Amino acid sequence: MAIMEALLIVCSKFAFNIGPIPLTLQTFAVFIIPLILGVKKSIIVFSLYIIMGIAGLPVFSKGGGFSYVFEPSFGFIIGFFISSIIIGISSNSNKIYSKYITTTIGLLVINICGVIYMYLIMNYYLGIDKSFIDVISLAVLPFISKDFITAFLACIIYSRLSIILYHREKTNISNNMNMYDI
What we know:
This protein is mostly helical. It is built from 6 helices and no strands. It has a single domain, classed as Arp2/3 complex 21 kDa subunit ARPC3 (Orthogonal Bundle), CATH 1.10.1760.20.
């Protein structure tokens, strides 16, 4: 879980500012973490990430602190947490297409949370008059093709990693069983 937390933080720091939403590698981490850890452990990882960021640790793409809650992009972070539950559900499946479907649904949840939050912050907190269409074209459309490709790559990488992870786990279990057979 600590390695996944570090991965999430490092991926958030690879940021290219192209507007109110920076282009980061966070979505890759958001997709791969629940696939590897499952629902319960990924909830802990994403909860800790949000708590650390709000507490002031610079774990988010533009820093941290309680004021980050008023950033237009904070809704996407909320979406990360919710999508980790959805994506984590598919961690028990052996079918790559089910993982891609739930990862794509997770992406949809991230974007819905992000757009609604950004709309509310821009219109009611920052006083910037933006329609939902404006927010979608600003916060979703520039990233959507990258996000679909990232979801696909995360599923492929996970399928390769799972061979290593679960083979080692099975080997450790069988070694422990042999130890008790003596």
